[in-house]
Amino acid sequence: MSQISAAWGAGPDASYEAIAERFRPLFARIREGAIHRELNRQWPLEQIQWLKHSGFTALRVPKAYGGSEATLPQLFNLLIELGEADSNLVQAIRGHLGFVESVLNSGDPRRRERWLPRLGEGQLVGPAWSETGDAGQSEFSTRLQGEGEHWLLNGSKFYTTGSLYSDWIDVGVSDANGETVAATVARDAPGVTVLDDWNGFGQTLTASGTAQFHNVRVDAADLNREQRFRYASGFFQAVHFATLAGIGRALSGEVAHAVAARTRTYSHGNAPRASQDPQVLQVVGQLRGAAYTTGAIVLKNAEALQRAFDSRLAGDEAAQDEANTLAELEVAQSQTIVMDLILNATTVLFDALGASATLRPLALDRFWRNARTLSSHNPRIYKDRIVGDYVVNGTPPPFQWRIGVA
Length: 406
Fold this sequence. Notes:
InterPro entries: Acyl-CoA_dehydrogenase, Acyl-CoA_DH_C, Acyl-CoA_Oxase/DH_mid-dom_sf, AcylCo_DH-like_C, AcylCoA_DH/ox_N, AcylCoA_DH/ox_N_sf, AcylCoA_DH/oxidase_NM_dom_sf. It comes from Pseudomonas typographi. This protein has about 400 residues and is of the alpha+beta class. The protein has three domains: about 15-125, Butyryl-Coa Dehydrogenase, subunit A, domain 1 (Orthogonal Bundle), CATH 1.10.540; about 125-225, Butyryl-CoA Dehydrogenase, subunit A, domain 2; about 230-395, Butyryl-CoA Dehydrogenase, subunit A, domain 3, CATH 1.20.140.10. Helix content is about 50%, strand content about 10%. The protein contains twelve helices and eight strands. The strands form two sheets. A four-stranded mixed sheet has the order 1-4-5-8, covered by helices on one side.
């Protein structure tokens, strides 16, 4: 079934359906076991391998290196479809998607030639940037020290989402001068330990816990001192939006199916079956509308990010500044709306069903837990202020930000 015939609206372009058809059977297989994995805390190791072998993780990689050379709108629309199957998987590869984007934007041809073949083969890169405790905003406690012709990496990271499933880990460190450096090390390198200690109540299968590094040897070729690509903040946040849009589609579909199958109804209802009760149908329609609207917003954000990506090729610094500023603003002014729509839907869905909908085997609570967890990333309370400051005072949005002790 095409996206149009499913009433989700047109995809990003005329070629989208051909790309999506490659992956929809895979999405269906992933969705079959999603609730079982959720209830039993079963890692999606096999499903991650399916994504790698299918070429999904190499969607943005140029065709010359084995990828599909997909546009950002195509990528984000596919992420919505994957998120509908299992939201854990989109977040689990979020860091990888950002790493691919950083390589595509790299001004270092040696870095591109080192990494694009690996990424085209399906090798997966997980992130290790955030630190907990008394870590500072300006420097990482994770350090990089020189030892002869090599470097040694020491420290600990948290929120290393997906690194447990990855072939490589991209680590944010501070060097001896306090400068930020990215060091990419093999997941199975001596001294690397990734723990399954993520204990959040949502997105429980994303492997977002601790990674530890003890005297891990790093080759100079695997150090990157470039700044992150300019639209990185908007890109990473928009991946969360795509995941939320996928959650919206999944919950609206599961509720519609449950209402259609429901034979019990209330004596003070409006019809002999829930499927004929106009008030129940109204709730189902609200859920569908929230999912539709969120998906449409994600596509508009992806178009803005694509313009930011394309602007680097024009050789016009002012135009590049404007494209990146506008992309960040489009994402920022979407954040509160997207999150409110889906968070509300994850609660309202129970109004269309009876108390039996709270039984654990249905796992309908996963939608709220997962959406609430995603909506806690990059606090939305700041976004409306940032947008208002721009439109009133012309203050540009912050492109990069760090969390830690000020």
